[in-house]
Every structure is written in C-alpha cells, then in structure tokens.
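Input sequence (57 aa), recorded before submission:
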Amino acid sequence: MSAGERAKAKAEQIVGKTVRKAAHAAHRETLAAKGAALEARGRARGAKEQAKGSFKH
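Predicted structure, token format:
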C-alpha cells in the first residue's frame, strides 16, 4: 500500500466522520448520510489498498 493512497483513504475517513458528526448535530440528515458515505468510501479504499499490498509479499 503506497503512502499516498493510505493518506487519501485516511483523509476520506476523517473528513467523512467530521461531516457526518457536524451534520448530525445540526439535524441535517441528508448531509450526514453523505458524510457517512464518504467515510465508508475511505474505509473501502483502505481495505482495497491493504489487500493489494498483501499479495505483493
């Protein structure tokens, strides 16, 4: 897993979590759902990159 891809995945997770929590606190459920989707996409990207890295060893 390259450091750049790992950073992108972690950034998506952090931004998504922040957006989700802030939107939820402001009772903006549509925006909270978008934040949750971004967080999930970051987790999926991280898992994909980790799986690619495990085959290289």
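Checked by second reader. The mean pLDDT is 89.
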